[in-house]
Amino acid sequence: MRIQVTGENAPGVTVDGRRGIVIEAQVGPVFSVNGRAGAVSGLAEAADVPAIADTAAADAITSHVAATDPHGDRAYAANLTPVDWINATKTPYSATGDGTTDDTTALQNALNAAGTGGTVYLPAGTYRTSAPLTIPPGVTLRSSHGDHFDNLSGWTQINARIKPLASFSGVSAIRILDAPLGGYAAKSCEQRLLDLTLDGTALPGGNSIDGVQAQGTIRGLVFENLSIKKFGGHAIYFTYNFSAPAGLPQAPYSSRLRRIVASDTGGNAFSFNNTTDTTMIDVESIAAGGYGFYLSGCGNSTLIACRAEWNLRGFHIVPGNAQLSLLGCSTDRNTQNGILVTGGSAGATVVITNARLNRDGRNGGTGGGNYAGLNVDTSPAYVIATDISVLTGIDDDGSGTRSPQYGFSATGNTYVAVNSGTLNGNTAGWRDGGGNTRLQRGLNIREIVGDPAAPASTLDGGGTFDGITGSLSVAGRALGVPRPADHNLVAWTQDPATIGNGTAGTSGTLYLSAVYVPKYTTLTKLIWGSNGAGSGATAGRNFVGLYNAAGTLLASVGVDARITGTGAFTETINVTATPGLYWVAFLVTATTMPQIYRGGTLSGGLHSANLSGASLRYATNGTGLTALPAPITPASNTATNLTYWAAVG
Fold first, then answer.
1. Mean pLDDT, rounded, for 152-162
2. How many Å from the N-terminal Cα to the C-terminal Cα in the chain?
3. Per-residue confidence at 210, pLDDT binned at 50, 70, 90?
4. What is the pLDDT of residues 395-404, one digit of tens each?
5. Among candidates 1, 3, 92, which has minimal Cα distance to 55?
6. Of the candidates 121, 91, 246, the residue with the CA atom closest to the CA atom of residue 180
7. Contacts (Cβ under 8 Å, ≥6 apart) of 641
């Protein structure tokens, strides 16, 4: 038995102090109003509110409500059901929800009868369907509870689930259409799905059926408290009406989605095309065969606390022509990238704030697949990330390869700025894949390589930076001081503009000049030079090279032909470098030594002030040598006043 207290201000009629719609009038003085159970007061005197056991008593309450309602703005059906709230199991609709009967016709009839502003309510049960249920404009389909991705096993079923039959035919369990596709006289908008479970477990394997599909120019969709599981297509798919008149948005827009979980879908869990002006809060994808979130052209939209776990990819973003914001979103153990931003429109903006990206790139294997927690690849958009945390990890059972390979990766983009956060990768925290017009790194970043609990290395601050001018993310640029990046180099011993002369060293002595590599990179060239030619070089005993801080020889280049020349020389090397201290090595064996470019020569103690052994900037390490030693012992370094200049890039 169902009644409605009409008018927003029906005098004195409340349920637990709340005015509104009395949804269920059960046997006894317990009712529910606006979906809340409680005791009714104000309908009549206490003596007139007995246990309602017969129609006469119910009619008495209805008469009282009608008599005391000054508005009289609602009509009542004979069975006390308000015209704007339909229980689909009641006559004349008579859906069964018994888990066996095909309820498609009954449910669709109820939806069609609800009218704009009407609600179709499904009591607890399993409603089997053989074709899509189409929700007309302004109609709400709801129950009382939507599952999480797991079931309430061991409990009496308290929710309604729509469960397509194995013989189901159609594109989706729920379908929402724009005016041209639906044949509506006015615009299509304000359809709502609330507190429901959509269950695709009975569908045959390999199906491409979606849970919900909305097609065309539809405004103001509201989806809340939904569970959508095991559909072969998408959980929710917003797509175009390709036949819509020119100039229309052609896809759903200005929608609101909250507390929705999609699990075990065959395609993308949430697939949105040109879905502008939309907000999603606490929307989660688990174990999708495609992407957790596919967001193409979703300008002026915001995702808050949305999650993507164990999918093919977490968030796949193709920026539209306005801003897309991700706030507090997270990923975990996706097969590929946690967040990938790729392609899109020039001038679009993607802002990612407080993202938590864990253990993605799961199937990259030992090579890592170049996957990253955050990967920006070939995008003309502006991409800005702040306070992001990327952590590596393995599977929950302790198996699998640690991933992702990179905490952050950027290749071929117009503008990417990572302002702050923790970037943990199995190979590197930060990866510059090259081709970025502007790649900017903030000061408040920590890079971690390997297991974050026992890292192979860490790097703090703004040392990592691509070869782009104009950034304040490195102190030298902020102070107006030239940097190696301004010369398309990675590191140098000192600004080459400070080099005023050259000096000959001692034949057969190994000279070392420190450079500080600020990022994970591949070094392909070593630059040095001489302003005074040498002579009498012993063939095969003249080298420049590169050592790391442990003394390992990483590169050795024969330079016999350079000894009699002058000017700047560029040697080809191939060194995979991690951030830290390196030494450029010089070894010349000649009768007349060349005058190698250098800085000041006042005092070795001054040039390496407060340093010793393995930390000296300028040093010698061995005499009477004929080749670069492999390795050297850095603790045996001796300070020198010959500050030979070199650069690597």
1. 70
2. 80
3. very high
4. 999 999 999 9
5. 1
6. 246
7. 601, 602, 603, 604, 607, 618
Tokens standing for residue 212: 């919900």
> DSSP character for 18?
B
Q: How far apart are CA 377 and CA 644, in angstroms?
A: 39
Instruction: Give the dihedral sign, CA 285/287/290/291.
Output: positive
Confidence of residue 460 (pLDDT cuts 50, 70, 90): confident
Give the whole-angstrom CA distance, residue 294 versus residue 126: 30
Gap between the Cα atoms of 472 and 553, Å rounded: 34
What whole-number distance in Å separates Cα of residue 304 and Cα of residue 328? 6
Output the 3-class SS for 445-501. Answer: EEEEECCCCCCCEEEECCCCCCCCCCCCCCHHHHCCCCCHHHHCCCEECCCHHHCCE
Cβ count within 10 A of residue 291: 26
Residues across the chain: 649
Report the amino acid identity of residue 387: D
> Could you check whether the bond before residue 11 is cis, i.e. omega within 30 degrees of 0?
no
Structural contact between residues 509 and 620, judged by C-beta atoms closer than 8 angstroms: yes
State the Cα–Cα distance between residues 471 and 469, nearest whole angstrom.
6
Three-state DSSP state, 162: strand
| Contacts of residue 241, Cβ cutoff 8 Å, sequence gap at least 6 | 178, 180, 181, 215, 216, 217, 250, 251
Q: Structure tokens of 104?
A: 């498609």
Lowest mean pLDDT among 55-64, 527-536, 585-594, 612-621: 55-64
Element containing residue 647 per DSSP (H, E): strand 647-648
Under 8 Å between Cβ of 499 and 599: yes
CB 435 within 8 A of CB 412: yes
Three-state secondary structure readout of 9-63: CCCCCEECCECCCEEEECCCCEEEECCEEEEEECCCCHHHCCCCCCHHHHHHHHH
Residue 223 pLDDT? 98
Q: What radius of gyration do the chain's Cα atoms show?
A: 35
Strand partners, 447: 423, 459
What's the mean per-residue pLDDT of the chain? Answer: 84
Rounded distance between C-alpha atoms, residue 27 and residue 325, angstroms: 50
What was the pLDDT predicted at 295? Answer: 96
- 409-444: per-residue pLDDT in tens? 999 999 999 999 999 999 999 999 989 999 988 888
Cβ-based neighbours of 369, under 8 Å, separated by 6 or more: 336, 361, 363, 405
Helix (H) or strand (E) holding 58: helix 55-68
CA separation for the pair 263, 352 (Å, rounded)? 24
In this predicted structure, the answer to whether residue 517 has a pLDDT above a threshold of 80 is yes
Residue tagged 């890592």 (tokens): 368
Q: How far is the C-alpha of 232 from the C-alpha of 210, rounded, in Å?
A: 7
pTM above 0.85, yes or no: no
For the cut 80, the answer to whether the pLDDT of residue 260 exceeds it is yes
Residue written as tokens 């599909």?
A: 213
Classify burial at 204, counting beta carbons within 10 Å of its beta carbon; exposed 0-12, middle 13-18, buried 19 or more.
exposed
pLDDT of 380 > 70? The answer is yes
Q: 106 is written with which tokens?
A: 């009954």
DSSP helix/strand/coil, 354 = coil
**Burial (CB count within 10 angstroms: exposed 0-12, middle 13-18, buried 19+), residue 170:** middle
Q: What are the backbone dihedrals phi and psi of residue 284, each rounded to the nearest 5 degrees, phi first?
A: -130, 140
CB atoms within 10 A of CB 406: 32
**Which one, of 579, 587, 580, 441, lies nearest residue 528 by Cα?**
587
Rounded distance, CA 369 to CA 301, Å?
31
